[in-house]
Amino acid sequence: METLFGAPMIALAIGFASILGVVCLVVVIFALRNGVLVRIGVRNIPRRATQSVLITLGLMLSATIIAASLGVGDIVNYSIERAAIQALGHTDVVVRARDPRLLASDYFPAERVQELDRALAGKQLVDGVLAEARERAPVVNRRVTRTEPRMAISGLDPARTAGFGSLRTTDGRTVQIAELGPDEVYINASAQRELEARSGDVLDVVPGGLTHRVTVRGVVRDGSLAGSQPRMLMTLDAAQLIFGHPGQINRINISNTGDEWSGVRHSAEVIRRLRLVLADPVAAASLYAELRSGPNRAALAGYAATEPSARPASLLKQLSDELDAGTPTEAFTSLIADPEIAGIVALALESDGRPEDAVAFSAQAVRVRLLTIDDLKTTALANAERVSDGVTRLFLVFGSFSIIVGLLLIFLIFVLLAAARRTEMGVTRAIGARRRQLVQIYVYEGLIYAVGAAAVGTVAGVLASMLLVEFIPASDQIGFTVARHIEPRSLTVAFTLGLILTIATVAFSAYRVSRMNVVAAIRGIDESARRTRGRQARRRGVDARRRSAGWLRAVPSVSLAALFDAMASGLGFAFRTALQGWPLIVTGAIVTGRGMAGDSAFGVRVGGSLAMIGVGLLVAYVLKRAGVAYTKRVRLGVSVGALLLLAFWGMPFSLLFDIFGELNGGIEMFVVAGVMMVGAAVMLVMFNAQVLVTVAGLTLGRAGRITPVLKTAVAYPMAARFRTGLTLAMFALIIFTLIVIAILTNTNQAALEKMERVTGGYQVTASVPLEHAIPEIEAALDDVARLQRTDIELVAATGRIGGLARDLRADSSAWQPISVKAADGTYLATNQLELSHFDPAYGANSREIWDAVSKDPSLAVLNTGSLPVRFQQGLEVRGRRFVAVAPLKEDPAQITAFAVQVRDSAGNRPPVMLTVIGVTDELADLLDGSPSLTVRAGVVDALVGRAVPLAQYHFRLTAGADAKDVADALETAFLRKGLQATITEREVREFLSVNTSLNRLFQTFMALGLVVGVAALGVISFRAVVERRQAIGMMKAIGYRPGMIMLGFVLESSVVAVLGILLGIALGSLISWNIVQELGDRVEGLRFAIPWLDVGVIVAFTWGFSILTTIWPARQASKIYAAEALRYE
Questions:
Q1: What residues contact residue 509 under an 8 Å CB cut-off, 6+ apart?
Q2: What is the DSSP string of 165-195?
C-alpha cells in the first residue's frame, strides 16, 4: 500500500519515526541528567512480573489495531496487484484501435508494429513489442460436450514473444508459441477447468457462427501471456485466418524494461513517445492553429482560473506554455493526443458558452490519435491502491474505537498504579522531590512498558491481519486470491504511531497522577482539603517562575513571575467562566451555524454537543448560585447535559435534517457518534450510581444467604466512580460497534424477502456479445429443443454502453463516466424495481414512472449509485464518477425532475439532454451500484449515431419452472452466439454471502477491542485485592467464607461487564434503528430487527471472558487470612 488518507506511506513512516526519535532523545537527555529517577522508575517492573505482563498486554492494543489495519490493507493491495500482474503478465501498455465499433473489434495493419519498433529503438525503455489478434468466441470440447461461451482467443506473433515471459505447462515444461501447428492451440489452466480438456482433445471454436476445429497441444499455467481467465493461445496467422482478418491485428502489447512489477515505472515515457509516433501531424497542426486564437486562449485561461481541481489547471498551464512557442512542438502533440487533456479543453470551450465548438474540437482531437494507447498496468495498480486505501480507512475508522479504548486503559492503569504507590509518592515528595520529577519517574516506567507493548502489539497486529483475511470470501467471488504480504513501511508506521500514542497517554497520565496533597498521601487519607483556585493559580505561577529561573537565568525572574502569574490568572478566569456554561452555549451556536452554512454534519454535531454540555454546566452554575449542595448540583448538571447529548445524538436522522437541513458527513461521524453517546451514557450512570445502589438494595434484599455478597458487589464498583466509569466506557464502545455491525448485517434479509426488487422479477438473465445479438429473441425460443416454452412467461431486452454525463447544477461541470442502459418496452412495462424518489408530476408510484419513461424518450431513471454519499450510507472507494444532486421536496420520497446532459465516450457527437424523473432504491442497485441511467431503447442510438442492439435478455419464468434447467437450455441452444445465462437469485445470494463474510471480518476485528475491557477488569481486580486487604479480613472475621469472598469479586466484575454490555446494546440498537429508518425511507419493506443469536454470542463471549479474567485475583482474595489482613499496614 503506497498511501494512507492521501499521504504517502513512506512519508508517514519517516515522519512518525522522526517524531519518536525526538521524543526518545528528550527522554534520554533527562535520563542522563538524573539517573536515580530512571532507576526508581524501572525498579517496579521486575518486582511485579505478573502485573507488568498484564500492563504490557493492555498497552499494546493501539499498536495491534493499527498494525492489523495496515496489514489487512497491505494484503488486499498486494492480492489485487498480484491478480492484475497475473492477468497482464509482462504487458505494461497496450495499443489498440482509436474508436472501437460497437459491433466488432477494429483491426489495423500489422505493419504498425514496425513503426513502434523504430520509435522506441535504442531508448532502453521496452524489451518487447508483440502483435496480437484477440477476440472472444464460444468454444466446445467435443469429447465431454463442455462449453465456454466467451473464451478469450489470442493469436500471437511467434517471433515477438521474447520479453513477455515464458509459457510453462502444468507439468513444468517450457513451451513456445512457435511450436504450434496451424490447427494446434494451448489452453490455460482456467480454460482446462471450464472445458475439462486435456492434451489431444479436439475443440470447436465458433467465431461469427463459423466452426473451426483445433487440437489442444498442451495446458499451460495461468499468468503472463496465458492470462488468469480462460484463454486459448494460437499463432497469429491461425487467428487471423479464423477471425477473417489476414495481415491485420487489433492489439499491440508492449513490455517495458524490467520484470512484471518494475516495468511500470517506464510507462509514462513510453506513452509519451508512442503518442508522438501515433499522432496525425496534420490534425495536430490544425488544432494548434485553432487553439492559438484569442477567444480559445481566453477560454482556456478562464477555465483554469475557475476550476477548483488543481490537475486540470496544471495540464492547461502546460498546454498554454506550448501554445506560446509559435509552432507545434513534440510536447504539444503529445499533450493534445492525451484524451484527458483533450476532454479538459472541450470542457473549457463548452464552459465559455460554445458547445458547438466543443463538439467540433472533440471530433478533431479524436482524429489526432491514429490509435488509442491504454496504460493498463498503471491503471490496474492504481485501482488496487484505491481499493486497499478504502479498506484500510474502514478498518482504521472502526478500529479507532478500540484505539480509544486502549488509550483509556493506559490512563486507567496509571491511575491504579498511582493509587497503589500513593504513600510512596507522598514520601518521595516529602524528602524533596519535585512534581516534575514524579512525572519523570512514571514516564520512564511507562516508556519501558510502551516500547515492549508497541513491539508485541505490532507483531500481534501482523498475526491478527493474517488471521482476519481468512474471512475474505473465496477468489471466485471477489476476483482475486488472497496473498499474505506486509510492507516494512507499514510495520514502521504501526510501531511508531502506536508507541507515540502510548507515550503521549502515559505522559498525560503521569502528569495527572502527580497532583497530590503530600500530607494526605503519606497518611493514606482522602484529599478533602482543596486549595482555592486563586491559590492554585498563584502557586502555578510561582512554580513556573522557579522553573524558568533555573532554565533562563539571564532573564529577570520578577518579569517571568509576573508573566506566568498573568497567564495562570487568565487561564483560571477562562476556565471558571467556561464552567458557567453560557460560553459553551454561545460557542456551540456559532459552530453549529457555520456547520449549517457549509452543510457539514461534523460542524453541526460538534456545535450542538458543545451547546448541550454548556446547558448542563449552566444548570449546575444556577444551582450553585441558589445555594444547592455541591454533590447534588454536580449530579443534576451532569445528568441534564448527558440526557441532552443522548437526545441530540439519538434523534432520528429525518428530524435532524428537518431542523438543520441537508448535511454531508463521512463514516467518521459513526466514530464521533459512538464516543459522544457512550460518554454521555456513562456519565449519566456514574453520577447517578447511588440510584443503582438503592435499587440493588431493595431488589436484592431477599436473596438469602448471599445478600451481603450481592450488595457489596454492586456498592464497591459504584463507589469507585472514576475507574468503573472508564471500564464501562471501554466495554460499551466495543459492544456498541459490534451491535451496529450485527444489526446492519441483518438488514440483508430484506433483499432475500424482496428478491424481485433486486432482480426486477426476472429469474434468469442472459447476455451475448453485441455482434451476436438476437433481435427476435421471442421467436428464437420456439426452436430451442431442450426448453419447455411454457416455462417462460415473458422476455425483456436491455443494452448498455459507456457514456459521459454531467449535472449542470453540480459544483463541478466536468463530464464523468456513466453507464447508459437502453430498455425495450417489455422491460419498462414489466420490471418490478422500486423507486426511492420520483417526481409526482410524472406518476404516483414506481409503475407509473416506468410507464412514463416508456412513452417519452426524453425521460430517464437514475440509480442510487449516481447520488451523493448522503443517499448511499457507504464508503466511496471508486475513482471519478458521475454524481447528481437530486432536489428533494417536502416528502422525502419525492424529488423535482432535473436535467442531465449525456454524450458518448468519444465526445465527438452533440450531447443529449435527458430529464431524470426517478431514482431506483438501494435494493435495485445491490448487484451493481455504479452510476447508470435507464432510458427507452433508441435513445442510445442517438448518442452514438448508430443502431445499438439489445444484447442482454431477462426471462420471467412461470410458477414451478426450474431456473437452472432454463439457463442450461439457453446456453446450449445459443452456444454459437456465446450466450451466458445467470440465475439471478443465486447471484444475489452469493453477493449477500460475500457481504456477510466481510461483516464477520469487521466483527472479528472489533472483537480485539474486547481484550482491552477484559484486561481492564483484570487490572481492577488485582488492584482491588491489594486495596481491600483489610476489608477482606474484616469480612472474614464477621463470618464471610472464602467462597463468598471469591463470589463477591466475580460478581463485581460481572456488574461492570454487564452494565457496559447493556449500555452498548442499547446505544448500538438506537443508532442502528436510526440508520434503518433512514434507509427505510428509500427501501420499502426494510425493517429493524435485532439478531438475537449474534447478540447472545457477543454477550456470552464478553461476560464469560470477563469472569475468567477475574477468577485468579478473586481466588487470591479468598485465600487471605483474617488475622494476617487485619495486622497488615
A1: 410, 411, 413, 414, 415, 442, 446
A2: --EEBTTS-EE-GGG--TTEEEEEHHHHHHH
Cell of 1050: 466475580
Of 1000, 1039, 1028, 1125, residue with least CA distance to 471: 1000
Decide: 964 and 806 in contact? Cβ < 8 Å. Answer: no
Q: Let me know: does 12 contact 493? Beta carbons within 8 Å.
A: yes
Q: Cell numbers at residue 1051, please?
A: 460478581
Rounded Cα distance between 683 and 1072, Å, is 22
| DSSP letter assigned to residue 841 | T
Euclidean distance between CA atoms 615 and 583, whole angstroms? 10
SS3 call for 938: coil
DSSP character for 369? Answer: B
Alpha-carbon dihedral 446, 450, 453, 459, rounded to 10 degrees: -170
Residue with cell 497482464: 88
Q: Give the list of residues 6+ apart from residue 350 with CB closer than 8 angstroms, or none.
A: 358, 813
Q: Please report, for residues 536, 590, 1057, the alpha-carbon distance to residue 1067 in angstroms, rounded to integers and kept in the order given.
A: 40, 28, 15
570-573 contacts, C-beta under 8 A, 24 or more apart:
571/537, 572/533, 572/534, 572/536, 572/537
Alpha-carbon distance of 863 to 925, in angstroms, equals 7
Give the pairing type, strands 371-374 and 93-97. Answer: antiparallel
pLDDT at residue 544, as a whole number = 46
Output the DSSP codes for 17-48: HHHHHHHHHHHHHHHHH-HHHHHHHHTHHHHT
Task: List the one residue out of 1008, 1007, 998, 1018 whose CA is nearest residue 1099.
Answer: 1007
Mind listing the pLDDT tens digit for each residue in 698-734?
666 565 667 777 777 777 788 777 878 888 888 888 8
Name the helix (H) or strand (E) containing 216: strand 212-220
Closest residue by Cα to residue 538 from 562, 519, 514, 555? 562
| In 552-650, alpha helices (H) | 557-578, 582-597, 601-625, 630-650
Q: Which residues of the chain have pLDDT under 50?
A: 101-104, 528-542, 544-558, 560, 869-879
Q: Which three cell numbers stand for residue 915?
A: 430529464
d(CA 1103, CA 1106): 5
How many whole angstroms separate alpha carbon 629 and alpha carbon 626? 9
pLDDT at site 797? 93
Element (DSSP H or E) covering residue 231: strand 231-235
> β-strands 174-175, 371-374: how paired?
unpaired
Domains of the chain, by residue range, sit at: 3-75+396-525, 93-270, 279-369, 537-572, 579-692, 700-748+993-1129, 769-978
Query: Which residues are registered as beta bridge partners of 139?
Result: 148, 205
Classified as helix, coil or strand, 127 is strand
Q: Is 62 exposed, middle or buried (0-12, 13-18, 19+ CB in 10 A)?
A: buried
Q: Are 935 and 857 in contact (CB under 8 A)?
A: yes
What pLDDT sits at residue 878? 37
Angle CA 774–974–235, to nearest 5: 100
Residues 6 or more apart whose Cβ sits within 8 Å of residue 313: 304, 305, 307
Residues 641 and 608: their CA atoms lie apart, in Å, by 11
pLDDT, position 165: 85
CA separation (Å) from 874 to 25, 668, 731, 1082? 44, 11, 26, 15
- Distance CA(73)–CA(4), nearest Å, equals 10
Which three three-digit cell numbers place residue 811? 459544483
Model pLDDT, residue 525: 65
Cα of first residue to Cα of last residue in the chain, in angstroms, is 57
Residue that has been written with the C-alpha cell 465458433 in this structure: 206
pTM for the model: 0.73
